[in-house]
Amino acid sequence: MDAPITAHSFLNFLAYAGIGIGVLVLAALALVLITPHRELSLIREGNSAAATAFAGTLIGLALPLHSAISNSVSLIDAAIWGAVSVVVQAVAFLLARLVAPKLSQQITLNQTAAGIFSAGVSVSVGLINAAAMTP
Fold first, then answer.
1. Helices (H), strands (E): how many in the chain?
2. Which residues are in coiled coils (predicted)?
3. Interval 21-73: pLDDT, tens
């Protein structure tokens, strides 16, 4: 009988999880740097609009990373497609700022609607991004 988990499969899990979490953390940091407001400080202060927007950012980044890992043929392939998804998410964020130029200010002022809109953009683009990553 085959073992459900082998040392090889467990090492693959660790490698792909490491790539996924690493890209997610780096991408989140990159997006934090391009936002005019300081999400993490606002979240620490209890700003629910910032928390909602940032949660949407994380989900929007994780969705295509899931697809990149699921459809990749190697760790490098997963990392490259993960990086591509980060660029797409950053462009979506910048476009959302064009559509709603006061978005950052509204999030800073804890206007929940702005946080929900920002999260919605991130998750929507993340879903499309993930669906586009087909083998």
1. 6, 0
2. none
3. 999 999 999 999 988 889 999 999 999 999 999 999 999 999 999 999 999 99
Burial of 5 (0-12, 13-18, 19+ CB in 10 A): exposed
Distance CA 86, CA 35 (A): 14
Which residue type, as a one-letter code, is found at position 40? L
What single DSSP character describes residue 109? T
Write out the two tokens for 59: 């989900």
CA distance 62 to 70: 12
Distance CA(14)–CA(50), nearest Å, equals 31
Q: Residue 133: is its pLDDT beyond 90?
A: no
| Cα distance between residue 26 and residue 32, in whole Å | 10
Angle between helices 112-132 and 48-71 in degrees, nearest 10 = 0
Q: What is the Cα–Cα distance from 85 to 64, expressed in whole angstroms?
A: 6
Convert the pLDDT of each residue in 90-122 to its tens digit: 998 888 889 899 999 999 999 999 999 999 999
What is the greatest pairwise CA distance in the chain? 61
